[in-house]
Amino acid sequence: MADTEVKMQKAIESLKDTFNAIRTGRASASIFDKVRVDYYGQKSQLNQVSSISIPEARSIVIQPFDKSLIGEIEKAIQAADLGLNPSNDGKVVRISFPPLTADRRKELVKQAKADAENYRTQIRNIRRDGNDELKKQQKAGELTEDSFKIETDKLQKLTDKYIAEIQKIYDAKEKEILEG
Q1: 42-45 and 59-64: which strand pairing?
Q2: How far, CA to CA in Å, does 136 sit from each of 20, 32, 142?
Q3: What is the pTM of this model?
Q4: Nearest-CA neighbor of 98 among 13, 23, 47?
């Protein structure tokens, strides 16, 4: 049961990471979490080689710790295919977030909904695996009929809890996208 809950919690964390990568109309440093910069032959996270600040709601300023990285940071952001156009002045990289169109907002909501459904399916698959394990334990004589019923009920409650959490996370992301 504990192993099943750990797997479900990992699915929730993964969903949050996925949603962080979805760009809304507002500037957010978390969209750069997966951006890797070539730093002396090593791929490093953007936030490890620079400071990321948000001076206004629709702009981000990235200041590299090493000025020679400016070009690499620009290339990495463009290669990440985030739909952003970085520009630099030799000292910092500036990124402006254009307001999202209504069509683009609808696309992003649709994408978020599909992602949420995929994670609901993952949770249900984890539940199925847990139920299979309980059935094996029952056949092996490790669980009585009553304890099998109790454990499957616990598993269903756990599943319902995580499915509701996915819905809550999705609702917050949808609101964030639509209000931009």
Answers
A1: unpaired
A2: 39, 44, 9
A3: 0.70
A4: 23
